[in-house]
Structures are given as C-alpha cells and as structure tokens.
Amino acid sequence: MQEFKWVGRPVMRVDARGKVTGGQKYMGDLRFPGMAYGRVLRSKYPHARIKSIDTARAESAPGVVKVLTWRDVGGLNGYGIAIPDQPVLCSDKVRYMGDAVALVIAESPEQAEQALAVVNVEYEVLPVVDDPEAAMLPDSPRVHESGNVHMQTHVENGDVEQGFAASDVIVEGTYRLPRQMHAFMEPEQGVGVPGPNGEVTVYCGAQHPYRDQMQVSRALGIKPSKIRVVTSPTGGAFGGKDEITLQILLAMGALATGRPVQIVLSREESTVAGWKRHPMTIYMKTGARRDGTLLAHQVRLVSDTGAYASLGGPVTNLALEGCTGVYRIPAIVMDGYCVYTNNGVAGAFRGFGQLQANFAIEHQMDRLASELGIDPVEIRLRNALRPGDPNPLGHTMVESVGAIPTIEAAARCDIWARREEYCRQSSAPWRKRGVGFATEMQGTGLGVGLPDYGAALIRLLGDGTWTVGLSCPEIGQGNSTTYAQMAAEGLEVHVQDVEVFVGDTGLGPDSGSCTASRSVYTGGNAIFRAATQMRDRLRGEAAGVFGCDPEEVVYSEGVCRRVDGTASATVQEIAARAAAEGREITADGAFIWPVSKVQIPGAVGLPHIINTYITHVALVEVDEMTGETSVLKAFAAIDCGRVINPQGLRGQSEGGMVMGMGYALMEDTIIEGGKTLTPNFSTYIIPTSIDAPDMDTVTCEVLEPSGPYGAKGVGEAVMVPIAPAITIGIDRAVGARVTHAPATSERVFHGMRSRDGGRGVGEGSTA
After folding, report:
1. Are both 434 and 490 inside the same structural domain?
2. 528: which residues sit within 8 A by CB, 6+ positions away?
3. Are residues 336 and 415 in the same domain?
4. Is the pLDDT of residue 767 over 90?
5. Cα separation, 272 vs 517, whole angstroms
6. pLDDT attached to residue 602
7. In sequence order, what are the residues at sequence separation of 6 or more whose Cβ sits closer than 8 angstroms to the Cβ of residue 93?
8. Residue 161 banded pLDDT, cuts 50, 70, 90
C-alpha cells in the first residue's frame, strides 16, 4: 500500500487545544452588543386545533421587545428536508407537544420566559394518534389531511415463495426498536444578527448551512444572498441538527427587532421538541438451506416519523436496504411504511435506519446459526457479499467490498478466539457471560436519485500559507483535521501551513450536508481536485516569471522549478509577488458522487453503491438475579477504505461503540399519549465513562478506487452492529433473546423466566 506524508498519520486535531483548554466558543457562547433573548412558546397538547392566539398581555409585559406569531412569517410557513410540512410557527393546528406557536423576545431570558406564561392560546383538543399501526387504519384520526401514511416503499427481487418452499429452516421474528435521543453536549442554540441592508447572519449548530440558508430564505421570503449561515463549531449533532432547529426563528427575531437575538433551548425543551431516532417495528422471515445458504427473506417495517416528515421517507428506505445486511439473498420482498403520529418528531440519526434494520437481520442470522448448528462466523462468511456479487437490491458489487475481511478480522480477535475462557471467568456464580458477534455494511452518501455533490476552495495567502474552504461543518467528528491532511498531501506542503474553514456560507462553497458518512469522501475528493488545479496555477505563475511555457515547469514540495534547472521559485515567493500585484491565487474543485445505474422504483436513494463495512464482537455479563447487563469488552473491525487519521478513526469507533451500547441497553425516549416521560438526563439514561468497556479497533483497509486516497466514510457505521452483538451476547449468556430494545434489566429478567418456565435461565424467549 502506498505511503503518504500526511494521509494515514495520527495528526493532532486542529481544534484540540481550544476544546481541551475550554477556549473553544460554541454558538451559545457568542455575545453581541444589544443582544436580546428569545424563548419559544410550545404547544400544551400533542394534538389540537388552534382557535385563537392573543399576545396583547405578553407584548406589554416588562422587558418584552417583540412577540412573533405565524402572521410574522414573511414567506412559506413551513420547513422540512423531504417536504416542508412543519410550520415555523403554528397557525391552525398543533401536532405534537414541541410545536412552536409563538416567539417572545425580551431584554433578558427571564423576562422572555415570564412573558410566555401570558400568551393566551385557545385550543380545541383533538384525539391523540400515538400508535403507528393504528394510525394506518382507515378510521384513524388524521395527523395531516393527506393521511397518516407519509410514504410506502415496496422492494421485490426473485421468487420469495419458491425460496421459502426450498428452505430447510425458516426463522421468524418481530423486533421493536426504540426512540433514541441524540444527547449532544450542546443543545439547540444560536444567535441571529441583523446586517445593515436587510441582511442577517445566523449562528447556529447545524449540519448543512447552504440548505439552512435556502430554508430560511423560503420561510422569510428574502433572497439567499442576504442570509449568511455559520454552523461551526457544533457541539455534537449525530443527525439531530441536520434539519432546521432554530435557524428560521433566529433570523425572524433579528430582522423583526433589528437586534441580535439569542435562543438557547433547555435540555428538557430539546428533549420534547428535538429530533429523535425513528422507532420501528420490523417483522422478518428468513429461509435457508441446511448448510446455511440464504434463500429467501421477507420484511415488513413500520417507522414512526412523528408529527412531520423531515427525513422519515429516506430513513425508511435506507432501513429497508439494511434489512438484507451484508448478505447474498436471491429472493426478497420488503415493505416499508413511514407513518405520522403525535409522538414528537423523528429525523436523521447516526446509522440512519440501518441501526434498526441491522439489529433485526443480525438476530435472524444468529437464530439461523443456532437452529442449524452452524458457527455464527461461518454462516456469515458463507453468505457475505463478495466483489462481483449482485446484492439483493440488484446492484452488482464492483466497488470496494470489505465484508469478509472485517468478519475474518473479528473472528481472530481475542474476545472471540478466547470466548469460552472468558465466559468461564464470571465475577460471581449468579453472573453469566456471553459473547455476541454481528456485522454490517452501511451505505454512504445520499444514494441514487438525490443530488450529492461537494466543492472546495483553496486560497494561497500572501505569506505562503493556505486556506481551504468547505461548507460541510465540523460537528465534532474531526473532519477539519482530515481536510487539512488531504489538502497538505495534495499541495505537498506542511499540514501546519493549511487552515481549514468549514460550516460557513460566507467562506466556502456548497459542500452538502455533514451526514451519511459523506464528508471525508465528498470533501476529500473536492479538495483533491482543487489541489490539482492549484498546482497547475502555480506552474502557470512560475512560468510567467521564468519566461517559459507551464509545461516546462514542475511543482514539488512547495517549489516550482524549470525542467532545465535554470530557475526556481518557492510558493512563498510566488504568493508574495501576486499579493504585491493585488492578486489572489485560488483554485476550486467540485465532485459529484457516483450512483448506481439501478434504481428501485419509488424508493429514492436505493441502492447505495459505496459502503463501509464493520464487524463488532462484545463480551457481556448478565446478573441472573436482576437481569442487569454489563459490557466488559468490545472489538471493532472496520473497512472504511484508507484511514486518513488513525487517531480520529479510533475516536469515532470508540464513541460509536458506547453510543450503540446505550441504544442496546439503556436509551428510550418514552412517550405516552403524546407526552414525553423522559425529558432530561435524570430519566433518560445514557452511558457514561463508568459504563464504557475495554475497547479495541482494527482496520481492514479495502481501498475505494473512487475515494480520495482510497478513503470512504465511517461516522455512521461505527455504532451499528455493536447493539445486536451485545444483545446476542445476552442470549448466549442466559438464554434470553431480546427482540425489544433496549435490553433493560426487566426485559432480560422476564426473558430468562419465560425461557425457563418461571425458574430463571433456560432455552427460548421472545423478550
């Protein structure tokens, strides 16, 4: 494998010092002269008709500057990535308890909060729709007049009936997956700042500044050129800030008052109003021959998108794709339903539907292995996709395919190789140990049928240093550092001479969203092209000085030399000359994501053609007396193409494993009757450092030919198969197969009892 100077090296993160010292300023830390403070009035009810809104008392309350309602929305009163079906401020109806009804702006946060109490909203309470299955019935109350089924997707390939008829064993299961909260450190917050000529700058943690700019423009009826969106740094996102959070309200407040306006959501408000992972119910039926070869697969998936669409449709589609796992399956039939309810709002979340799907398919594979008496690794290797194979959705795998390398690497890890020894070492007689094994491939990029592009701008400054501008934000994953590494590699300069600007519509071209594990692949390709163009520009600049053609000039390691050796010029000298002449030397690069020639009818995004592959192994210990589960060790084998920064990859891997552990064992945003019962971290439990297991990560670098230096993305996949690995480990330990996540101590305990006829540990469970 080719060695590089900067790519593949553990370069220290460019934002490390500020974050470690506490000097890093996030959006809630910003202060501006004359700043006012906004608070959002949200619905009292999960479903109600608005009969009237009276703001008179609030407008006359102490310190109040302005009270805004739907009448103050200057353009389209709606936003949403898929369809703009969510009101900026509700006018006639509220559909969940986080719906925004009014915005109060005052001289202090306390005065704004007090004024909320005297905004008088008269409601007509409507029946609550909180069960997605019931919501699909013809006589269900409608969340939207168009109906409660936002989207339905059907995928079929091969003869499923024939496949099941030829199967020696068939396993069926229904899997219920929870509503997970992003739990980012920085809640939704920001500042809107007015400009001199009707311009406005929005400072807000987000994942796609140019799309936010478009949505603000559309909602307020002003030109995009008058709106600047600054999104970095963002204190965590994980998909929860891909959709509009506060951007439109911040711009509205600033333009209405002529003053900077800050809005900061409390954790409880963020929990109630913010985006969540889609809870899903997935039914699977899988048939195989006696030797473990898969023959047929049937799926019915129901996804609860909550009150508004957001990315519910694409999440459902990608979940369907994930329901086939990494496997060759000659016959499939899959139906996915994305359903409106009054259960909050669901949107993008790390893993983007494939987490839920992978939980189900990996449990199916483990059940098949048990039924057939085949080793769990062997049944996966026997069915895993190889280069040149057609996948179940009809795409031939001609790109990098790392399924088998990651499975084989995981099978060699210490946890799996010594699993019997580890399982004998339980800490007490009533504690039992088990080891779970699970694998996944994560489609990266937006997929076929969607515009997926990136762009980068490189500037050579007068002192010979460089800036690289992209709009794809830094949300904590370290892409600014990898961008600097790839730019330094392409320009053949020192990485410390490269400064990266991200997440700002005023400083970089549209690079798309920081989602779908796309930022390194797309941004890196754009940087590579911009660096190539910059080297050509430098050769042209030097040729002008040397009095020769550019073809007679070579560029290497920051120096342009005439081929005949008669002249040379450093980058610093070229930059100084251009600056003296009042010129700026720039180069840009653009990249469009390759997509499949196959497209599933009615399923935008499917299939993906570039995938990240990962296999997880988990050692768990279960207390038979309580059902409490601890994760002791975890291992990850990852194929994300070439690793740009090993240190960054390790951080992603370990963070993903802990986040996936939370999904497997603890996390569930409980909503009953439309009311959130877990509104903060005292009731919504997430893993802490105390819960984190010993973790190890190895890489299987199957280079992607279309990727920058062979790289692919990794951010999504790292949290996916750890959840089924943990819950399969529980089954191996105490015989309680958990099909309803999270695997709380209660569910594990009752699972043990159901398998043992009420005595404790035994065989078989549907907990």
Report:
1. no
2. 486, 490, 589, 708, 709
3. yes
4. no
5. 27
6. 87
7. 48, 49, 50, 126
8. very high
Residues 256 and 305 in one domain: no
**Is 465 found in the same domain as 443?**
no
Domain stops at, among 264, 291, 314: 264
Question: What pLDDT is stored for residue 382 in this prediction?
Answer: 98
d(C-alpha 477, C-alpha 42), whole Å: 32
Predicted local confidence at residue 1, as pLDDT: 81
Say yes or no to pLDDT of 619 above 90: yes
List of residues 6+ apart from 582 with CB closer than 8 A: none
Taking a C-beta distance cutoff of 8 angstroms, is the pair 250, 192 a contact? yes
Residues 509/550, Cβ–Cβ less than 8 Å: no
Mean pLDDT score, 118-140: 98
Backbone φ and ψ of 28, nearest 5°: -75, -10
Closest CA to 686 of 146, 199, 271, 215: 271
Length of the chain: 767
pLDDT digits (tens, 9 = 90+) for 750-765: 999 887 654 333 233 3
Alpha-carbon torsion 387, 391, 394, 400, what sign?
A: negative
CATH number of the domain where residue 458 is located: 3.30.365.10
Residue 48: Cβ within 10 Å count? 22
Q: Are residues 485 and 395 in the same domain?
A: no
Distance between start and end Cα atoms, the chain: 47
Query: Do residues 310 and 392 share a domain?
Result: yes
The three-class DSSP label of residue 507 is coil
Distance CA 675, CA 130 (A): 10
Average pLDDT in the chain? 96
Helices (H), 33-118: 56-59, 109-116
Domain count, the chain: 3
Q: Is residue 617 part of a domain?
A: yes
**Predicted local confidence at residue 452, as pLDDT:** 94
pLDDT (tens digit, 9 = 90+) per residue, 310-354? 999 999 999 999 999 999 999 999 999 999 999 999 999 999 999
Dist CA 386 CA 408 (whole Å): 13
At 96, which CATH number? Answer: 3.90.1170.50
Q: Does 763 fall in a domain? A: no
User: Which SS3 state, helix, strand or coil, does residue 613 take?
Assistant: strand
Q: Are residues 216 and 90 in the same domain?
A: yes
SS3 407: helix
Helix H or strand E segment including 754: helix 745-755
Q: Are 509 and 456 in contact (CB under 8 A)?
A: yes
- Is 575 part of any domain? yes
100-106: strand order across its sheet: 64-68, 100-106, 36-42, 261-264, 189-194, 200-204, 227-230
Cα–Cα distance measured from residue 28 to residue 609, given in angstroms and rounded to the nearest whole number? 39
Joined together, the tokens standing for residue 675 give 């009311």
In this predicted structure, the answer to whether residue 268 has a pLDDT above a threshold of 90 is: yes
Confirm whether 165 is domain-assigned.
Answer: no
Whether the per-residue pLDDT at 708 is higher than 80: the answer is: yes
Last residue of a domain, one of 576, 592, 608: 592
Same domain for 686 and 669 = yes
What domain range is 547 assigned to? 16-23+453-592
Which pLDDT score is estimated for 756? 65
Assigned token pair, 66: 């302005």
Q: Report the C-alpha gap between 440 and 356 in whole angstroms.
A: 12
Q: What integer pLDDT is reported at residue 759 of this predicted model?
A: 37
Task: List pLDDT tens digits, range 71-98.
Answer: 999 999 999 998 999 999 999 999 999 9
